[in-house]
Amino acid sequence: MGRKPSNVYDYFIRLEPEAGRKGMVRYQCKKCDKQYASNATRLADHLKMSCAPSFQTNQRIRKVIGLLPSVNIHLNGNSQEAEASDETKETDDSSESMAATVASLVVPVPSPDVYAAAGVETAQSLALKRSDHELLTNMLESEGELLQDVTEVLLRLAKLSTCAIADAMAEMKLQGHLVDVNLVRGYDAPLAMNICGPALTVKIMPTTGALVGSGSYDYMDTVEMGQVVVISSPARSTMAVFGELLATASKARHVAGVVTDGRVRDVHELCRMNFPAFAMGTSVHGECGATTIAEINGPVLIADCVVRHNDIIRGDINGVIVIPAERAQDIATRAEIIADQDNKIIEALNEGEPVQRSLQRFRASRNV
User: Fold this and answer.
1) 36-41, long-range: CB within 8 Å, 24+ apart, which pairs?
2) CA-CA distance, 171 to 335, in Å (whole number)?
3) Concatenated DSSP letters of 44-109
4) Any binding-site annotation on 18?
5) Which fold is adopted by the domain 174-329?
6) Is-contact 232 219, C-beta < 8 A?
């Protein structure tokens, strides 16, 4: 008698990637033959809802790096031990290696507010910790399809403000700021609305005139965990391209957020579910047949910047910036240097040092 399955992937058959869709690995349930994209949370939900109601998600990997406490977890009024059972401890060597790799990428978060007393958490530091925690958690719950260097650069960029990244890109003669695309107002904790992830691009066109496409709005069913949905909207459109329904689907799939040069609606619901939305405005109207999906994962023009599939999107309360995927490592390195210099300047200014002297000391190799 074989061992009882202890990992979500034990219940599924790995399928070969579809032609022309590199990296889009799918899994087929051994019991009912349903297929899903590689997303451990989605696979686990399927098991719990239909084929294996008694299945419990393996929390062991996340405990290894301290993302989950070793205390009782209360779900629906029932207390369950967070400790994995003997069966779930049979996680394979690849999972152990993955946990060790991600743990090695965690670095101390620099103090973002020098005015705060020692030991006091500021809104900025809490936002940074939330961003890191969610990013790490989502990566651990996936099978690690992103290459290690991509995972590392995402973690590094998630710790940097968009301002530091923009300064680094400016020094490299790169423009990535999505002008006038800002966090929607209404969140209880806007500083915590951080996004950092690869782009899934959606091009929306008006249905008037010659139709360039007739795509379906079910593109959300193909989005991967950790991605940022980037939507190009028709110019001067008064219709929203994103609202509560798509946000609910995004939240269930652990999408990082949405960015659009158009409008969003159902703002109260978006804020209530803490789903980060960055847009040029809001609307009360849905698309109402006025628009159609022209292309998925093709290049789109957002606020005079070209955004390609899998370019990295970083957004915070300052705004949104697009980072070319092939330059991400260099940009992260330069932005880290800039952030470190700025922290030293702030420390010197707090000690009463003149501004000019502080800038000369720590920005000798940079223009002010």
Assistant:
1) 36/12, 37/222, 37/224, 38/142, 38/143, 38/145, 38/224, 39/141, 39/142, 39/224, 39/225, 39/253, 39/254, 40/8, 40/9, 40/141, 40/142, 40/143, 41/141, 41/225, 41/254
2) 10
3) HHHIIIII-TT-----HHHHHTTSS-SSEEEETTEEEE-SPPTTGGG--HHHHHHHHHHHHH--PP
4) no
5) Glucose Oxidase; domain 1 (3.50.30)
6) no
Q: What is the pLDDT of residues 120-149, one digit of tens each?
A: 333 444 444 444 455 544 544 444 444 456
Q: Average the pLDDT over 154-169 and give the result.
A: 95
Q: Is 243 annotated as a binding residue?
A: yes
Radius of gyration of the chain (CA): 22
Distance CA 103, CA 117 (A): 28
The three-state secondary structure class of 357 is: helix
pLDDT digits (tens, 9 = 90+) for 67-114: 333 333 333 334 343 334 444 444 444 444 444 444 443 334 333 333
Q: Is 265 assigned to a binding site?
A: yes
Over residues 187-230, the pLDDT tens digits come to 999 999 999 999 999 999 887 765 555 556 678 888 988 999 99
Q: Which residue has the higher pLDDT, 140 or 237?
A: 237
Phi-psi sector, 173: left (phi>0), alpha (psi -120 to 50), beta:
left
Cα of first residue to Cα of last residue in the chain, in angstroms, is: 70
Q: How far apart are CA 266 and CA 230, in angstroms?
A: 18
Cβ neighbours of residue 182 closer than 8 Å, sequence gap 6 or more: 278, 279, 280, 319, 320
What is the pLDDT at residue 6?
53
Judge whether 244 is annotated as a binding position.
Answer: yes
- Domain boundaries in the chain? 1-57, 174-329
Average pLDDT of 160-166?
96
Question: Residue written as tokens 């002297």?
Answer: 357
Residues 6+ apart with CB under 8 A from 82: 59, 63, 68, 69, 70, 71, 72, 73
Nearest CA-CA partner of 325 in 198, 221, 224, 232: 198
**Which pair of structure tokens corresponds to residue 63?**
């405990």
